[in-house]
Amino acid sequence: MELFPESFDEMLSQFAGPGVPPFILSDAFPGDLLPLPLHVRTPVSEKKLKPPIYITQAGFQDLSVASGSLAPEVADKPFGSGSQIRTAIDRIVGSAAEGQLFELDIEHLQENFETLSVYVRSDRYLEQVIGCFKALALTGFGKKSSSGLGAFELLDKAQDCDWLDGVEGANAFVTLSHFVPAPHDPTNGRWRLHVTYPKFHANPVSNVFKGSIIMLTPGSVFRTDTGSPRPWYGSMIPMSRPEMPKAMHYALAFAVPVRWEERG
C-alpha cells in the first residue's frame, strides 16, 4: 500500500464497520508519563491533586499487574499555563481592530519535559499513520495552529511497546485516550467525564463545528469480568458534511489490560 493512497475509503469503511479498527491512537502524553488509573488510591499529598494526574511508565507497569490499592509516586506537573495578548479582528473590514486586545489562555510543557508520546496499535497501517503525523506537522494541530501554536515534529521512529499488552490474568482495562463508549462496552468501572467542543481541522468544510461531545478521560478503568479485555473499545461518531459525507469523529479507547483486585 502506498504511503498516501488516492482514497481513504477502505480505512473509513473499517472504522464504520463492526470489526477491528484499522488503527488505535492514544492521547499525547508528556515524556514517558501516563495517566494514573482511576481505580488506584490517590497518593497522600500536602497539596490537593487536580486531574489529570500522571505517573511514570514504570509505575504504570507495576500497577497493571497489581491491585488497585497501591499508591504510586505522582510525577511533577508536566504542564504550565500562561497567556498571550492578541489583537481582535474587526469583522467589518477583516483586519486588526484598533485598540481591541484580548488574552488567550495557553498551556505549555515545563522545561524538564521536551517531548510528547503517542501510542499506536495497527496491523496494517502503521506507516500510513506515521505519514499522516508527518503531514500534520507541516501545519500544526489544534486551536490557533494557524498562528503557530500546536507546532510539532516527529523526533523518533516507532518503538515496540509489548509491555502494554503482556498482563497475565487481566480482568480490566485502562484507557489511554478520551473515548465515547459503545452500547455494549463494559459499564462496571471508575471514570471521569470531559465535555469537548471539537472542530474540523484546517476548515475543510463550511460548518467546522462538531457540537459538544461528552467523553471519558484517559485513566478511566473498567472491569471485563466476562473475559480478557480487548485492545480497543469505544465508538466512531458520524459527522457527515456535504463536503465530507463519510467524516467521522474518532472516539475509540486505546485499552491497556490490567489486573484489578478489589481490596477493602
Describe the structure.
This protein has 264 residues and is mainly beta. The protein has 2 domains: 9-78 and 113-258, no CATH class; 79-112, no CATH class. It has helices at residues 9-16, 57-64, 126-137, and strands at 24-30, 33-35, 54-56, 79-89, 96-109, 116-121, 172-175, 189-190, 193-196, 213-216, 221-223, 232-238, 248-258. Strand 4 (79-89) and strand 5 form a beta hairpin. The chain starts with 8 loop residues before the first helix and ends in a 6-residue tail after the last strand.
Topology, please?
Elements: H1 9-16, E1 24-30, E2 33-35, E3 54-56, H2 57-64, E4 79-89, E5 96-109, E6 116-121, H3 126-137, E7 172-175, E8 189-190, E9 193-196, E10 213-216, E11 221-223, E12 232-238, E13 248-258
Antiparallel strand pairs: 1-6, 2-3, 4-5, 7-11, 7-13, 8-11, 9-10, 12-13
Short synopsis of the structure:
By secondary structure, this protein is mostly beta strands. The protein is 11% helix and 30% strand.
Which short descriptors sum up this protein?
mainly beta; 30% strand; 264 residues; two-stranded antiparallel sheet; five-stranded antiparallel β-sheet
- Give the N-to-C terminal Cα separation: 53 Å
**Residue share in helix:** 10-25%
Overall 3D form: globular
Averaged pLDDT: 85
Order of helices and strands: HEEEHEEEHEEEEEEE
Output the number of helix runs. 3
Biggest β-sheet description: 5 strands, antiparallel
Low-pLDDT stretches are none
Radius of gyration over alpha carbons? 20 Å
Number of domains: 2
Structural class: mainly beta
Q: How many individual β-strands? A: 13
Report the portion of residues in β strands.
25-35%
Strand order of the largest sheet: 8-11-7-13-12
